[in-house]
Amino acid sequence: MLRHFNGTEERYLTTQHERDQETGLDYRGARYYDADVARFLSLDPLASGFPEWSDYNYVMGNPVRLIDTDGKAPTDIVINGINGSSRTLVTDKYDLTLNVNHDFGGNEKIGINTYAYGNEIGISGDYDFQDGFGATGGIYQTDLIFKGGEYDNYVYSYINAETGGGVGMTNKSNWSVGLNGNSVIGFGSEPDLSPSSVEGSYFHVAASFDVNAKYQIGLTAQLSFSETWTFLSLGGTAGLDSNKGGANGSIKYGPGLTTMINEEIPTAERSFSDIFINASLHTLSIITDYFID
Questions:
Q1: pTM score of the predicted model
Q2: How far is CA 79 from the centre of its chain?
Q3: CB of 225 within 8 A of CB of 269?
Q4: Measured in whole angstroms, how far is the alpha carbon of residue 3 from the centre of its chain?
Q5: What's the rounded Cα separation, in Å, for the pair 144 and 127?
Q6: Are strands 26-27 and 32-34 parallel, antiparallel or unpaired?
Q7: In terms of Cα–Cα distance, which of 270, 216, 262 is closest to 239?
Q8: How many Cβ atoms sit within 10 Å of the Cβ of residue 50?
Q9: Those residues with Cβ within 8 angstroms of residue 132's Cβ, 6 or more apart along the chain or in another chain
Q10: What angle do CA 227, 90, 93 make, to 5 degrees?
Q11: Mean pLDDT over all residues of the chain?
């Protein structure tokens, strides 16, 4: 459908690009855009940088958050107001700066906060006293894929050490040692957090329920909190328990410490062989990423 115009001011519409009156198309510099179908009419010259998206898509299907100023790639929108105020809509590319006669009352960055997900394996041990109180400790390797930033789609690995105490549903002393496997999802408190921001101390709260026959089999759920991240882990454990033929539930909590194993490098700066080897060594995390995306 062609658009109709009442005056020359209407020639410049979305992102201040000129709309051709005969065809109804917007000229974006690198290619023409059809607002009726929200698609460009020719291939993206930077399509190789967005392999998961159609070569004809507009701002990765998110026009509320992103704009495309030249028909090549989505951009940040930085709006500078008066009295030093501003609003920034965060993207993964570069900034477009606009100036308006409005006081925003401060400087605010608006964007989708960083998130990450992956898998975790480790070994843990517990000792519960007869009065129900107990102690716990464990060491784990966590593999995370970060989404929404320059470290996107590369698996980073961490070693986590935890200690703590808590209460259990037992009336006699018992010990247990188990292997743990969990799925993990994390939410950052700020946009564009780097993988190294996960490092450091945290506090965890874990709930578990175990059934003990010849061996211990159980389910676990854990929340971990740091200054910038919140992680939820769900999974199971299998191992040995001195309380044969019974069941036990517990809630344990305490401190933890995370250390990153990988070197932090933006994904775009990594070689193809580096990315391929990383994906090969972390197949489970890559499979998880495929199904979540």
A1: 0.59
A2: 26
A3: no
A4: 41
A5: 30
A6: antiparallel
A7: 216
A8: 14
A9: 167, 168, 169, 170, 171
A10: 115
A11: 77
